[in-house]
Write a structure and sequence with these properties.
Arsenate reductase; Ptyr_pPase_sf; globular; about 150 residues; four-stranded parallel sheet; 4 strands; 4 helices; Rossmann fold; arsenical resistance
Length: about 150
């Protein structure tokens, strides 16, 4: 079984949505994966993330914000995906067998629910490409170029 970690700064928004999306997409595509999220520091899961995910039928209400050190076997992941530049810069060194990817999504915090939903949809598209590449043994997208900045409404 693959182990995947999605890492952000506060484990409150993008990494939480990513964890929910990766679990859902892996199950949907028949890929056995153990998915975790963490932050370089722990805070709380934001309501905008919960609502954005609930709107597409993925329940993350039970998720809690955590650090890498709160996870089981934190140094044993096949893939570590950072979703913000700060986490990418502060990501610890992993064994050579761990593939690190950087998908820097716009921070939806402080924006309207539409902004949260836009970031969620961008993440879903990118993470589905990642899951399908794993499933089919094709090249994994190495990075993600942010779409133009989402405007706050």
């Amino acid at each position: 079984m693959l182990r995947i970690l999605i890492l952000c700064t506060h484990n409150s928004a993008r990494s939480q949505m990513g964890e929910g999306l990766l679990r859902h997409l892996a199950a949907q595509h028949g890929l056995e994966a153990e998915v975790h999220s963490a932050g370089t520091e722990a805070t709380f899961v934001k309501d905008g993330a919960r609502q954005a995910m609930q709107e597409i039928g993925i329940d993350i209400r039970a998720h809690t914000s955590k650090t890498l050190f709160d996870l089981p076997d934190p140094w044993n992941f096949d893939y570590v995906i950072t979703v913000c530049d700060s986490a990418a810069e502060r990501c610890p060194a992993y064994p050579a067998r761990t593939t690190k990817l950087h998908y820097p999504f716009t921070d939806p915090s402080g924006g309207s629910q539409d902004r949260w939903n836009t970031v969620r949809d961008q993440m879903k598209q990118q993470l589905e490409k990642f899951i399908l590449a794993l499933k089919h043994g094709t090249e994994i997208p190495a990075t993600y170029e942010n779409s133009p900045e989402v405007t706050l409404s």
